[in-house]
C-alpha cells in the first residue's frame, strides 16, 4: 500500500473576502508542483461563500464537476436551462463536455454556504453537457460507507464520465468499515469532513486528506464521531 497525507493546515488558502477557499490541489493562484492532482482527481476546493454572494456566469469544458454542500443552500443556474437550489444532503454533478456556462450563488441572505467543489478529469472528451442532482437522505446509512457517485447510470447516486466511485460514511466513535477497491489500479483519496479517524495506522482529523493506492482494500475506524468522503479514481490520466 502506498499513501500520501495532506494535513488540513497545509492546503492552499485563498481569501477574497466574500469567498474563502482552501485548495487541496493547485488551483487559480495557488500552485504547488507537488500537489497537482491525485490521479484523475484534479480539484478539491473547500469553499465558504458569504451571504448572497457567489460565482458569476463562467465557462467550463471537458471536466466532471461535483458539488457537495456541507452547510447552507447553493443556487445554481446554467445555459442548459437548469435553475435549482443545492442543499446540505444533496450532491450535484455536471459534465462540462463541449462547454457549459453556469453560475453559483449563496442562496441564504443571513448565513454563509459551505461546499466542496470537486473536479474529475473525464475519460471521454467533447461529450454533450449534462446536469444532475439528487438528495442523499434516502440512501444515507449509519456506520458504513454508501455510494453517492459511480460510472454507471443505473447505480445508486449520480454518475460521471470516469471510472470513479465516491462514498460517504458517517460513523460514531469506535465504529469502522472496510472499503474495497472497485477497479484494479484505482486509488482512493479520503477526505475527513468531520471528526477523527484512523486509516492504516495514521490519525486523521477534520479536513485532513489521505491518498491510498496499490491496495485492494483498507479499513477506516472512527476514533471520534466522524464523517468521511472517499473518492476512488484511476491513478493514470489518459
What does this structure look like?
- The chain has 238 residues and is mainly β.
- It has two domains: 12-135, Jelly Rolls, CATH 2.60.120.10; 145-234, Jelly Rolls (Sandwich), CATH 2.60.120.10.
- The protein contains no helices and 22 strands.
- A seven-stranded mixed beta sheet has the order 1-20-17-22-15-13-14, with no helix packed on it.
- A hairpin with a 4-residue loop joins strand 7 (73-78) and strand 8.
- The radius of gyration is 17 Å and the shape is globular.
- The protein starts with a strand and ends with a strand.
- 37% of the residues are buried.
- The model has no long low-confidence stretch (mean pLDDT 95).
What does the radius of gyration come to?
A: 17 Å
**CATH class designation of the largest domain:** Mainly Beta
- How many helices? 0
* Largest sheet data: 7 strands, mixed
CATH topology of the largest domain, anyone?
A: Jelly Rolls
CATH architecture of the largest domain: Sandwich
Pairing-aware structural class of the strands and helices? Answer: mainly beta
How far do the termini sit from each other? 23 Å
Strand order of the largest sheet: 1-20-17-22-15-13-14
Amino acid at each position: 500500500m502506498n499513501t500520501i497525507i495532506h494535513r488540513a493546515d497545509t492546503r492552499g488558502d485563498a481569501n477574497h473576502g466574500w469567498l474563502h477557499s482552501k485548495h487541496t490541489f493547485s488551483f487559480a493562484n495557488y500552485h504547488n508542483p507537488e500537489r497537482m492532482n491525485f490521479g484523475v482527481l484534479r480539484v478539491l476546493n473547500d469553499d465558504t461563500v458569504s451571504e448572497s454572494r457567489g460565482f458569476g456566469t463562467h465557462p467550463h469544458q471537458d471536466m466532471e464537476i461535483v458539488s457537495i454542500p456541507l452547510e447552507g443552500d447553493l443556487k445554481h443556474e446554467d445555459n442548459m436551462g437548469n435553475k435549482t437550489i443545492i442543499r446540505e444532503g444533496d450532491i450535484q454533478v455536471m459534465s462540462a463536455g463541449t462547454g457549459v456556462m453556469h453560475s453559483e450563488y449563496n442562496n441564504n441572505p443571513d448565513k454563509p454556504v459551505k461546499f466542496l467543489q470537486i473536479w474529475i478529469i473525464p475519460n471521454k472528451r467533447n461529450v454533450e453537457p449534462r446536469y444532475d442532482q439528487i438528495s442523499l437522505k434516502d440512501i444515507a446509512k449509519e456506520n458504513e460507507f454508501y455510494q453517492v457517485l459511480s460510472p454507471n447510470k443505473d447505480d445508486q447516486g449520480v454518475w460521471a464520465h470516469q471510472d470513479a466511485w465516491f462514498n460517504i460514511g458517517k460513523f460514531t466513535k469506535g465504529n469502522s468499515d472496510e472499503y474495497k477497491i472497485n477497479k484494479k489500479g484505482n486509488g482512493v483519496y479520503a477526505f475527513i469532513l468531520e471528526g477523527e479517524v484512523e486509516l492504516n495506522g495514521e490519525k486523521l482529523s477534520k479536513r485532513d486528506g489521505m491518498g491510498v493506492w496499490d491496495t485492494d482494500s483498507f479499513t477506516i475506524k472512527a476514533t471520534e464521531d466522524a464523517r468521511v468522503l472517499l473518492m476512488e479514481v484511476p491513478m493514470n490520466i489518459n
